[in-house]
Amino acid sequence: VAPVSVATLAAMKARGERIVSLTCYDACFARLLDRAGVDLLLVGDSLGMVLQGHATTVPVTVEQMVYHGASVARGRERALLAVDLPFMAAATPERALDSAARLMQEGGAQVVKLEGGEWLAETVRRLSEQGVPVCAHLGLLPQSVNRLGGYRFQGRDETSAERIRREARVMEEAGASLLVLECVPAALAGEISRSLSIPVIGIGAGAGCDGQVLVLHDMLGLNPGRPPSFSRDFMQGRGSIGEAVAAYVAAVRDGSFPAAAETPY
Ligand code: KIV
Ligand code: NA
């Protein structure tokens, strides 16, 4: 099977085929998700919360992202591999270029993802010029949780929605190849997905995006007590992790995930 590239994902968007993504932090799951047909593996800095037990993603380092990226890279064959730049790693364009070089040369990243709006436009341009496929990330920015004061939906009033619309355009114009929209109203995410030519992958952003991503451990029901309102436990009624992941892949492809119940706004 031909490996997935950012061009493959763009072609899927053009054909109206939904893109399936999950977070992934190790080689074992990389093999499983890759074989189940997941298109995009995201080594998210959510690993700071999911694997390390931190309350936020702020403590995660470039070194740790390199370690997990390299582990996932050894397990994947077909799926495209995106790795997050962690907190402060894109504080200046120079720092972002150095960090991205490490993620790609040591961490096996094929796409580098970074959180933030207009202030990152120059960084996205510089990375793209150097041949780095960039995934932008707008809406809820978990690395800014200490400023935001909590994990809340963004873009719910017109001022905030207009800012996200503008930032999405700016990221595309700066050369981003992909965009993740986290926790924004479905109508806004759908509108941005239709207006951009690059694929938009949603999490907590409704069914109108070009693709969906979830945190692996959330969709496997490994977050007991507080599952996010926009996630689904795909282990419910299924006997194995393989079956649960296959069900997720099918549900994203046919548009049945996320359903209305998993679309809070
Ligand atoms: O860190 C992460 O897992 C992410 C996804 C939820 C998009 O950024
Ligand atoms: Na992240």
From TrEMBL:
It catalyses: (6R)-5,10-methylene-5,6,7,8-tetrahydrofolate + 3-methyl-2-oxobutanoate + H2O = 2-dehydropantoate + (6S)-5,6,7,8-tetrahydrofolate. InterPro entries: Pantoate_hydroxy_MeTrfase (IPR003700), Pyrv/PenolPyrv_kinase-like_dom (IPR015813), Pyrv_kinase-like_dom_sf (IPR040442). The keyword Cytoplasm applies. The active site is at E182 (proton acceptor). Keywords: Cytoplasm, Magnesium, Metal-binding, Pantothenate biosynthesis, Transferase. Its EC number is 2.1.2.11. Binds 1 Mg(2+) ion per subunit. 3-methyl-2-oxobutanoate binds at D45, S46, D84, K113. It comes from the Bacteria. It is found in: Cytoplasm. Pathway: Cofactor biosynthesis; (R)-pantothenate biosynthesis; (R)-pantoate from 3-methyl-2-oxobutanoate: step 1/2. Its cofactor is Mg(2+). Catalyzes the reversible reaction in which hydroxymethyl group from 5,10-methylenetetrahydrofolate is transferred onto alpha-ketoisovalerate to form ketopantoate. HAMAP family: PanB (MF_00156). Homodecamer; pentamer of dimers. Belongs to the PanB family. This is 3-methyl-2-oxobutanoate hydroxymethyltransferase. It comes from Allochromatium tepidum. The lineage of its organism: Bacteria, Pseudomonadati, Pseudomonadota, Gammaproteobacteria, Chromatiales. The gene is panB.
